[in-house]
Amino acid sequence: MFSFPSYAATQWKTGNFTTYRFSKVDFTMYDLIMVPRCNNSHWVLLVAQPKTKTVNVYDSLGGDNKVFYELFRKFMSVRSNVMSDGMDQWHFLSTAQNRQTDGTSCGIFTLMKAECLVKNLPSLTLGQSHVAFFRNYVRGRLLASGDRHTYLCNTLQCIDPRGQLKWLNCDVCWRWVHEKCIGTGLDTEGFRCDICNVQYS
């Protein structure tokens, strides 16, 4: 699965289709591409399947999300002009969806839908009756992985430097690395970490 930052959809709404192009990512390698979006305080999840070139938008309030789909299609078309990866033609699918019955669970519904799809479970598996449980599940996951007791970076050969550090963010996977660990004199514009260099080269 490849997940876009939700800010990408915000950029598309303003007509900006080039800020998050992910030019070093081969979308054909993924089964799912997920794009969460918060619009008017309501979360929805766009899920694209590169192998079938189909798109679903999961909305726990059942809204009309054709505009979101069209923004995604426009982004992929603009990106394909540069990438020539054949990812410019997509088809919208409409599927049955669980509905929320309160006014505060759209974000949890988005996360539950993503969890089901990633784990290959039927998309209707989790619904309103699972919201409280899933909130606790997410809280536990965040607390378990959120406390970091190390200064090590995500590069394969971190030298554990101390003092004033300059960090670099991979343009592809968003891993953080110390500049000291990858050497000096590298082009930090469009930086790609060693893991992505191995995976995408």
Automatic annotation (TrEMBL):
InterPro entries referenced in this protein's UniProt entry, alphabetically: Papain-like_cys_pep_sf, Peptidase_C48_C, Znf_FYVE_PHD
UniProt GO BP: protein desumoylation; proteolysis
UniProt keyword annotations, A-Z: Hydrolase, Protease, Thiol protease
A single GO molecular function term of this UniProt record: deSUMOylase activity
Natural source organism: Dreissena polymorpha (Zebra mussel)
Sequence similarity: Belongs to the peptidase C48 family.
Top-level taxon of the source organism: Eukaryota
Record's GO cellular component terms: nucleus
Protein name from the UniProt record: Ubiquitin-like protease family profile domain-containing protein
Domain Ubiquitin-like protease family profile, chain residue ranges per copy: 1-117
Keyword field contains Protease: yes
Pfam family of the protein (one): Peptidase_C48
